[in-house]
Design brief:
There is one protein chain. With about 270 residues, the chain is α/β, with parallel strands linked by helices. The protein has 2 domains: about 150 residues, Rossmann fold (3-Layer(aba) Sandwich), CATH 3.40.50; about 90 residues, 2-Layer Sandwich (SIR2/SIRT2 'Small Domain'). Helix content is about 40%, strand content about 15%. The protein has 12 helices and 9 strands. The chain has a 6-stranded parallel β-sheet with strand order 3-2-1-7-8-9, sandwiched between helices. Helix 6 packs across helix 9 and helix 7 crosses helix 12. The radius of gyration is 19 Å and the shape is globular. The chain starts with a helix and ends with a helix. The structure holds zinc ion (ZN). The site of zinc ion (ZN) has 8 residues, from loops.
Length: about 270
């Protein structure tokens, strides 16, 4: 049984909060990449032609043409990111962090935290961000915003975007193949934030991180083991999933991020 009063105290006293957010949080924001529900209804053409029945499978699939690919990607980016409305969980997180120093490390790629109004300089998208695009040549020619491309596709006037350096087609800034280059600037900002807070009172708040994004889990637990003023608070892990040596400084709610955030903010 998690001692809610204790966890609330940690958060109140914290100099900084580090949020890690994975699949569980993406689901809260409406994007469940592993779900077959509604996929065939909404994306029937793609489902039939490529025999894919989840967003995850469809993202992994190489389509016959770049134009088809961008038409499909545009639908996804529009539905989940351009038309995004923050969930109750997200609004609770905003309330919790409003007077705090924070950094958000996420594998959710749907631009949710930026859209919800968090500081873009305080977000590291470990698995990229599909509102941005990168060169498909395999050479790192940087990233660009793709939202205008998406809008053109939705108007039926879409054109495959090309790299300004080498004229290769652009693709979503996500680890869909070996060409993915993470956002090194954001990663560096995240590392500086971690280093700068080693001696401070920190809460690592884990919102639905599972085995699909291990880099947001074990390394963060290890940091909490290393720094005695840090705490680890997890939505979907239980107390006994966390290491013995941080039991007194950690709490596992064994639930989902919505339920945890409601408990923490009420
Ligand atoms: Zn290029």
């Amino acid at each position: 049984m998690t001692d809610l009063t204790k966890v609330k105290e940690w958060l109140k006293d914290a100099d900084a909060v580090i949020v890690t957010a994975g699949n569980g949080m993406a689901k809260e924001e409406g994007l469940d990449i592993l779900s077959e529900e509604n996929f065939d209804d909404e994306y029937g053409k793609v489902a039939d032609k490529y025999d894919v029945h989840t967003i995850g499978d469809a993202l992994d699939k190489k389509f016959d043409t770049w134009d088809e690919q961008w038409a499909f990607w545009s639908q996804l980016v529009n539905e989940y990111s351009l038309e995004y409305e923050p969930s109750e969980t997200m609004l609770a997180l905003k309330e919790l962090l409003k007077d705090k120093q924070y950094f958000i490390a996420t594998s959710t790629f749907g631009h949710f935290f930026e859209n919800a109004g968090f500081n873009e300089k305080r977000i590291f998208n470990a698995f990229g961000d599909w509102t941005r695009m990168q060169c498909s040549s395999g050479v790192n020619h940087g990233q660009k915003d793709d939202r205008e491309v998406v809008k053109k596709y939705l108007e039926g006037k879409g054109e495959v975007p090309k790299c300004e350096d080498c004229n290769s087609p652009m693709e979503l800034h996500m680890p869909l193949n070996a060409n993915f280059f993470p956002d090194t600037d954001a990663n560096t900002r995240f590392r500086w934030f971690l280093t700068g807070n080693e001696d401070k009172k920190v809460v690592v708040l884990e919102l639905g991180v599972d085995e699909t994004s291990p880099q947001l889990l074990d390394p963060m637990v290890k940091l909490v083991e290393q720094f005695p003023n840090w705490h680890y608070v997890a939505a979907d892990l239980a107390d006994n999933d966390l290491p013995d040596d941080i039991q007194k400084r950690s709490a596992g709610f064994a639930t989902d991020s919505h339920d945890m955030m409601m408990k923490l903010t009420k």
